[in-house]
Amino acid sequence: MSNAAGKIGVLVMSYGTPESMDDVEAYYTHIRRGHPPTPEQLTELKDRYEAIVGGVFPLRENTNGQVAGLQDKLDTLAPGQYVCFQGLKHARPYIEDGVEEMAKAGIKKAVGIVLAPHYSVMSVGGYIKRAKEKAEELGIAMSFVEHYHLHPKLIQALTERVTNGLAALAKEAGEAVRTKVLFSAHSLPEKIREMGDPYEKQLLETSAAVAEAAGVTDWQFTWQSAGRTREPWLGPDILDTLAALSEEGVKAVLVAPVGFVSDHLEVLYDLDIEAKAEAEKLGITLDRIAMLNRDPLYMETLAESVMTAAE
């Protein structure tokens, strides 16, 4: 890594996922701030991983692929200027590990970016806080991309997916069937509204921009994957939304989880298994858009956002 000296470091941050079934308990304990899950909670999470892909962890591979894809794109747009490092919120390499790797490589200037387009103090803000503290401690000057939810290439990539998804759904459910597009994202505790947090507003802005570009008028926003805590979380949840749509006579739904950028548990289980099963019970055909993963337009969104922040 000695060839990194003089380059701008890029810390690519994401939520993190276990590397194997053996790591699930430690991962879950980290999410719960050091409190181990109950045996029931642990079994439920392991069952979900087993259900999606037989205990394989797609997010780990997808995140590695996105970091590699961003490095390739930066090498094309600004040869020899940037070097990417990875930092995860709840698994190794942790955010602090990524910053330490930069320092070891001789990096003096860096940019941090999160694989999530929308800013909340409870999500992206937390990643930035941890990276910033470690960077200051190690003498790295670090700037951050806080959000990129309206980057034209992100909107283009999502629009293509909605358009393709609707075409496939029309073949499956029939052209004449009333179809609703449901944009979704990970719920957060309701208290973010009182805090004036921009998360909800940014998600609605992305949804509206994609709907307009795709020529979709019949759409709404819904939440998913809320945590199980005593405090209220943002709703309605997608399962409740599907029940309401069924009452309205909607027969086909395309879910566009714009708050997520890759295939992982919240998409592969919460939508593809749980929401799909609920829709089936209600007589609704449910499909979802393909995730961004290493889409070239998404890689360009990240690269251009990093380069702008570096300036």
Characteristics:
4-stranded parallel β-sheet; 12 helices; Rossmann fold; heme biosynthesis; single chain; cytoplasm
SSE blueprint and pairings:
Layout: E1 8-14, H1 24-31, H2 39-53, H3 58-77, E2 82-88, H4 95-104, E3 109-114, H5 124-137, E4 141-145, H6 152-173, E5 179-186, H7 191-194, H8 199-214, E6 219-224, H9 238-248, E7 252-256, H10 265-268, H11 270-281, E8 285-288, H12 296-310
Parallel strand pairs: 1-2, 1-3, 3-4, 5-6, 5-7, 7-8
Helix pairs in contact: 3-12, 4-5, 6-8, 6-12, 9-11
Description:
Its EC number is 4.99.1.9. This protein is of the alpha/beta class and 311 residues long. It folds into two domains: 2-148 and 295-310, Rossmann fold (3-Layer(aba) Sandwich); 152-288, Rossmann fold (3-Layer(aba) Sandwich). It has twelve helices and eight strands. A four-stranded parallel β-sheet has the order 2-1-3-4, with helices on both faces. Strands 6-5-7-8 form a four-stranded parallel β-sheet, sandwiched between helices. Strand 3, helix 5 and strand 4 (141-145) form a beta-alpha-beta unit. The protein is globular and about 60 Å long. The two termini are 23 Å apart.
